[in-house]
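Notebook B, p. 112. Complex prediction, attempt 2.
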Amino acid sequence: MSDPIVALTEVEKVYRTDRMETVALHKLSLAIETGEFVSIMGPSGCGKSTLLNVLGLIDRPTAGEIKFGGKSVSALGDAELAPLRNRELGFVFQQFHLIPDLRVIDNVELPLLYRKCSNTERRRLALEALEIVGLERRVHHFPTELSGGQQQRVAVARAIVGKPRLLLADEPTGNLDSQMSEEIMSLLERLNRDQGTTIVMVTHDQTKADRTQRIFRLFDGQLIH
Amino acid sequence: MLYNYLKISLAVLARRKFLTFVNLFGAVLTLTVLVVGFAILESVVSPEGAQHRQGHVLMVVDAVLTGQGTASGGGPGRALFDAHIAKLETPDLVSFATNIESVASYRDGRKLSSQLRRTDAAYWQILDFELLDGRLLAVDDIDQGRFVAVINEATADSFFPGRSAIGETIDAGGDSFEVVGVVANEPVTSLLAYSDIWVPLTTTVAGAEDWVGNGMVMLWLEDASQIRAAKAEYAESVASFVYTPDPAQFERLTSSALTALEAIATGIMGDFGGELGVLQTEPRSRVAAFMGLVSVAVLLFMALPAINMSNLNIGRILERAPEIGLRKATGASRAVLVGQFIFENVVLCAIGGIVAFALAPLVLGILNETVFDYGRLGLNVPVFVAGFGFVLLFGVLSGAYPALKMARLDPAAALRGNQHV
C-alpha cells in the first residue's frame, strides 16, 4: 500500500501572545490517502482552518510531524516548502482571494509564475484549467466583473492549473448561494472523480460533508469520532 | 513573470493615487538633483569642446617646496616648468599656461570683467579650440612677446557687437592687445580651456622665476597608453630636484602629473596626512577617497526620501496582505516576493526617473544661463547610464525594507486578515 498523501502525527499548534496561550490543534494525528475527498467539520474556532493550513504547509505546527508523500517535511525551510506547495498543493479559499487588478487568465496563471514554465505553456495550462471550470469565455474579464460563483470557479482553476496532487478548500461554498454552491461542489466532485485529485474541504454544511468519502470532526483542536 | 509584476505594480500605483503622487514627488526630486549633479561632475571630468581629447592629457596642478621647517605651495611656476617639464621625453608636447585671472576692461565707458589666461603656443596644439575667426596664438607671438589676443565669441560680441573683432584692440588688466582670433566659448567646467581672453605668456615677466605660482601644465601624449610612463618620468625628474638659486632653502619638491579625475580629486579632497602641505597620498588613493565621498554623499542624499518612501510603502502592506498570503500559498518563496516588491518599487522609481530625465534638461538649461559661464551642461550617454543607476539604487534602497517586511508575513495570518507588520 502506498504512503498517504499527507499524514500528521501528534501535531500541536499553539498560538501565543503576551497574555495568553491558545491551543488550536492538540496532539492531532490523521492520514489522508491519495485520491480521497474528505471533509473537515466542527464548530467555529475548533481549529478547522488551522488544520487545513498545516496540511497545506502554510502554517507550521508547534510540535509533531507532517509527512507529505511519505517524506517528513516538518523541518523544511521556506525555500524548500515554497516549491513543494507550488508543485503539490492547490488552495481554494472562502473569500476567493483573486487579485482584482489581474484578469482572469492572469489570476489563473499565478502558480505557474513560480515554476519553470514558458509563456506559451503557461497560457495553455491556464486555458485548460478555465475550460475545466467552464469559464473559457471569461479569460479577459476582471474578477469584479464576475459573479461570486464564477469567481470561485476562477479560484478553483487557479488551484488546479499546476496539476497539484492535493487540493485544499477552506469553506469554498461559504460565500455562495445554494445554486452556486452546488456548482462548486459538483466541480470539486468532478475533479476528484475525473482527475484523481485528492481534496480536503473544510465546511460547516453537513449535506456537503456527506457527499465526501470521509468526515473528520474537530472539537477544541482534537478529532472526535 | 516580469510582465505580470509590471501589471501588478502599475495597478497598485493606480489604486492609491495620492500616496503614489507623494512617492513619485520624492523620487522625482531626488533623482532630478542626482542627475543634475552627475551631469555637472561629468562635464568637469570628461568635457567636450576644446578638451574633448582629455584622455591624452596629464596635468600638473600642484607643486610644494619643502625645506627646513618651511614650505611653499601652489600651482607649478615657470621655473619648475623649465627645470622639470620642458625636458621630459615621454610627452609629445608640454604646455605652460596660467590659471585664469579676473581682469577689468573698459568699453564705451562701461567696466567689463573678463577672465584672462596667458599661454604658450603648445596650449593651442593640445586643446582643440573651434576657431571662428582669425587665427590662434602662434610660436612667433610667444617668442616675440607680441601683445595679441584670442578672445571668445561672447567677448567678441560684447566688445565688438555687429562687426569682426579681428584687428581691434582690447584692453585687459592694464595692457592693450590686438585681437587676432575668435574662438568658440568654452564653459567654466572645462578647467583647462575656459577663459574669455588668451594672451601670450611672454607679455608679462611676472612669475618667470617662480617655482610655485599660478601655473597650469599640460603633458600631451599622442599615445594615451604612455600616461603611466609620462607620470613615472615626471616623478623621476621631480626626485632629482635642486632648488635654485639657493639649494639649501628648499630640499624637496612634491608634484605629480595627474589625470583629470586625479587632479579634480586632489583639488577637492586635498591630501590626508600631509605635513607642511606635502602631498603624501598616491593620486589613486585620492581618487578612491573622492569617489568614496561622492558615493557617501549620494547615499546620504537618497537616504531621507528613501526612508520616507519605505514608510509609505509599509502602509501598503496591510492592504496587500491577502495577495501576499496567496502568493506564498501558491509557491512564492520569500526571496521571490522580495524580488517582486523591489521590482515594483523600481517601477515607481523608473517613472520618477523618466520625469527626472524630462526635468533635468530644464534645470541644466537654467544653470547654463545663470551659474555656469558658457555652460554646456546637458544629458548625454554617461548621464543617462548614471541616471539609470540612480533609479535602480533608489528603487532598491527605498524598496528593500518594505519588501523584506512583506515577504516575512505569515501566509496563514495574511490570508485570514490578521496580519501584523
